[in-house]
Give the backbone structure.
Amino acid sequence: MLRLKHPFHIIVPLTLLLFLSGGSVYYWRSTSVRLTADGQTRRIFTKAHDVAGFLKEQKIPLGSRDFTTPGLDAPIGHKTAVKITRVTVNIEVEDSTSAPVTTWQTRNRQNLRRVLVQRGHTTTVTKKIKITKHDGIEISRELVSAKKKRLPFYTLTIFNRRGQPAKTYNLRRCKMLKMRSTGYYVGEKTVPSDVTYLGHKLQRGLVAVDPAVIPLGTRLYVEGYGYAYAADTGSAIKGLRIDLAVKDKYEEARFNRYNVPVYILEKSNAW
């Protein structure tokens, strides 16, 4: 007697055969593309006919400057290699400053300590540069614009006893007062003592001020006179008045009744 097999034994193999046949048909009808993009390479099967269609099919966006190799209209063939290059363009600003150019300077040590006063300028160049990168690698840079700016400087440098620079003051950033100057010296009949209010022996570079305007113990720079230290007061020295210690009556006459720029450097316990 003939025994029939259970339908299950027939259905399972038949289903598997149809599945494999369908998959084979899909891959047989598809084209293999090797895609390189965003640092990765992978193989993708596609039914697209050109690169543009392939990207659309795979939902891969392109930036406004991105490009493909081969181009978007290139046909898709067997084992086509497609590379997407991401393009970025940025504007960077670069600043450079030239070495200082000194147009005037004076050195002296007649007031309290050795000093150096300098005027001049530096030149700053600001450049805008367009930098293009492919996949993060710079391939070109283009100068967009360049602007030059001259920056003046006016400095005073004080030196220590060993002749080494101790500190430099930017006079352009210091507070400046226009003050009425007079001169005084030891031996003048209106000078009652040769010792200042702060107890220093009177010498050139020590000056008398109104403490309400300039605190005693302040380092100063007086144009035309030099480095100075506020160490004294006077009954006639009120408001924007300054009395400059000088050597004798001849030098006193040079500084009497002049409006001089006085730069306030800093408060200090020593000149």
Q: What stands out?
A: The chain has three domains: 30-85, 90-156, 174-267. Helices lie at 7-29, 51-57, 249-255. The radius of gyration is 43 Å.
